[in-house]
Write a structure and sequence with these properties.
homodimer, 336 residues, alpha+beta, L-amino peptidase D-ALA esterase/amidase, 5-stranded mixed β-sheet
Chain lengths: 336, 336
C-alpha cells in the first residue's frame, strides 16, 4: 500500500530541503528547493503563459546533468530575479557546476513564476523588485519543515474563487521509494467540483489531509464553473509545481515523470492548462535508489504516483490557505 | 447551458463525416474522419509510444494549412498504411492540396495507430497488411452516423481490464458552437474509479449517456489500480482521439485546444500518458463560425469543453463495447 511520508511534504524525499521567504507588505514570496548535491531535472510546460528561467538547460539533450536548485516565485516576470538570489547563496556556500579549475563554479538554478501582482499590498518597488533578495533569503532558510498555504510563492496566490497557496504532499511505496510534490496554486480554474465543497482531488486524499469532504448529491460539470476567476482576472494565474523522487531516474525518464505528473493538474483543477495559465511541472531525482527492470514499468508506477501526489498537494495548498485581503479561503467559505 | 448535439457524435460538428471499416477475421479496424473541405488541424502527443503519419505537417510552422482527412487505426505500426487507403479514395473524388496546375493534387491525411495485435483473430496476413484496404473502405463509407464500441479502430481495443472501443460525444454551446470528440480507447489504465463501477468521467456525464453509475462509498485511488493491464499486456495500448469544432480557430489555437483536450484523458483514465501508451489528440476546425474577442477567452471555454467532451467520449467508448473473445465488456461485468 501507499502511505504518506513522515512530514507529508516534498522534503520526505531524502536529500531535499525547502525554504520560504515572504514580503507581507508587498504580499508576495518565493519558495526554494535545494538538493544536497546536484539533481537530475526535467520540465513539462502545459500552460499558455509560462515565465521561466533555465528551461532550455533542462532539455535532456543539453549539457548540465544536475541542477543546484529550483525556485517558485510570485511577481510575474519580475520574479525571475529570484534565481539570481538563489545563485548568490549557492556561490557563498561553494556550490555550482565546475567548468574548469580556477574558474568560478556556476550554480545552475531553474525556476518559474506566477502572477500575483493583483494580490494587494504595495507593488511600488521602484527600480529593483524584491525577488532577488527573497530568493536569497528563502535559500538561506531551507530545512525539512516549511509552511503551506499563505507562504512562499503561495502568499499572493489565488485559485479560482478561493485563496490559493503553497501545497505539498508525499507518498511512500512499500519498498521505501518516495515521491513528493510541491506546488503554488494560482489557477484560473476551480479546485472544487461544481456546486460542492469537495475538492476535485478527493479520490486521492489520504487520511483526511485536506478536510475529507466528498461530493454529495448530483454533480454535473458542464460548461465553465462559476467559481473560476472571472474575465477581469483572467490574466492573473499560473500553477507551478515540482515533483521529486529518490528513484534514480534518467533525465529522459524524468521528462516522462513530469508529463504524467501534469495529469495531477487535470485531476485537481478545472479548467487548467488554459491560455492564461503558465502551468508547469518540474521533475527531479536525487538518484539515491536504483529502480528495477524493466525500467518503463517502474516509470509508469512512479509517474502515476507523481500525478496522485501532485493532485493531493494542490488540494492541500488551497486547504491550508488563510483568507487574505479580498481573497477568502476555502476553510472560511465552507466552515461548518 | 451545455447540451448534447443531435447525434451525440463528432459528426454533430457541421462539415464532418466519419466512417468505420472492420475485418472481423483479423479483429481489427479503421476509423476515418473526412471534412467537406480542407480543415485546420493540430496534434498533441503525450504518450510514450506513439505511432503516427503526417504529424510533422501539423506543426503550425509547416506549410499546409488544411488537411483532407484523419484516420485512427488498429494494427500497431502496420496500421499506418490506412493513410494510403484514405488518400486513394480522396484522389478518386478529386480532393487534395494543389501544388500547381497540371500536377496531381496531394491529399494530406494524418493519422495514428493503436496496438491490437493481441486482439485474437488471424494476424497471419503475409506480405500486405489489411490496413490500406480498410482505410479506403472506411473513407468510402463516411456518413453522419457510425457505430461505437467494437467498431472501426475500436474493434480490437482493450481499456485496462475491460473491452475497449470506439467512443464519441458532442457538446453544443448556447450560441450553437459545437465541440465533438472521437476516440479509440485502448489504454493500459482503467476507465473506472478503484473498487467501483463508476467511470472516472462520471462528473461530466450528460443524460445517462454511459450508464449513470456514481461512486458509492469510499474510494481511495492510491497505488496502481487492479483493473489495469498487467505486466504481460503492458505493451499493448494507446488511446487516440480527435476533437473537432466549427469555431474558426487558427492552427496555433487548435494546438491549445488539443493540449486542453488531453486533460480529458487524465480525467477519464488512470494511469494515462504512460511510457506504454501512444496517447495523442488531434484538434480540427471546420472554420464555419467566427469566434469572439478576446480570442484567448474563447479558446479557454472551447478547450475546457473539449476536455469534458473527450472524457465523455472515452467513457462512452468503453460503455458501448461488447465482449469479444477473452475481453469482457463493462456492461457484461457490471450487469445488474
Amino acid at each position: 500500500m501507499i502511505r504518506k511520508g513522515e512530514r507529508n511534504l516534498i522534503t520526505d524525499v531524502p536529500g531535499l530541503k525547502v525554504g520560504n521567504a515572504e514580503d507581507h507588505k508587498i504580499r508576495t514570496g518565493v519558495t526554494v528547493v535545494l538538493p544536497d548535491k546536484p539533481m537530475a531535472a526535467a520540465a513539462d510546460i502545459r500552460g499558455g503563459a509560462p515565465g521561466t528561467r533555465e528551461t532550455a538547460a533542462l532539455d535532456p539533450v543539453s549539457l548540465v546533468d544536475g541542477i543546484d536548485g529550483l525556485f517558485l516565485s510570485g511577481g510575474s516576470a519580475f520574479g525571475l530575479d529570484a534565481g539570481g538570489g538563489v545563485q548568490a547563496h549557492l556561490k557563498a556556500i561553494g556550490r555550482g557546476y565546475e567548468i574548469a579549475p580556477g574558474l568560478p563554479r556556476v550554480p545552475v538554478v531553474a525556476g518559474a513564476i506566477l502572477f500575483d501582482l493583483n494580490s494587494g499590498g504595495d507593488k511600488d518597488w521602484g527600480d529593483e523588485p524584491p525577488y532577488r533578495a527573497l530568493g536569497k533569503l528563502a535559500a538561506e532558510q531551507v530545512g525539512l519543515h516549511f509552511r503551506l498555504g499563505d507562504a512562499g510563492a503561495g502568499l499572493g496566490a489565488v485559485a479560482g474563487g478561493y485563496k490559493g497557496g503553497l501545497g505539498s504532499a508525499s507518498s511512500v511505496l512499500p519498498d521505501g521509494t518516495t515521491v513528493g510534490a510541491l506546488v503554488a496554486v494560482n489557477a484560473v480554474g476551480s479546485p472544487l467540483m461544481p456546486g460542492s465543497d469537495a475538492f476535485w482531488a478527493w479520490p486521492f486524499e489520504l487520511d483526511g489531509e485536506f478536510g475529507g469532504r466528498r461530493p454529495m448529491g448530483p454533480v454535473t460539470a458542464a460548461g465553465l464553473p462559476r467559481d473560476m476567476k472571472g474575465r477581469v482576472q483572467s490574466g492573473t494565474n499560473t500553477t507551478i509545481a515540482v515533483v521529486a523522487t529518490d528513484a534514480d531516474l534518467t533525465r529522459v525518464e524524468l521528462k516522462r515523470l513530469a508529463i504524467m505528473a501534469a495529469d495531477g493538474f487535470a485531476r485537481a483543477l478545472r479548467p487548467v492548462h488554459t491560455p492564461f495559465d503558465g502551468d508547469l511541472v518540474y521533475a527531479v531525482s536525487t538518484g539515491r535508489r536504483p529502480i528495477d527492470e524493466p525500467r518503463p514499468l517502474a516509470v509508469l508506477e512512479l509517474g502515476s504516483l507523481a500525478a496522485d501526489t501532485l493532485a493531493r498537494a494542490i488540494a492541500r495548498g488551497v486547504y491550508a490557505a488563510d483568507s487574505l485581503g479580498p481573497f477568502r479561503s476555502y476553510r472560511d467559505i465552507f466552515a461548518r
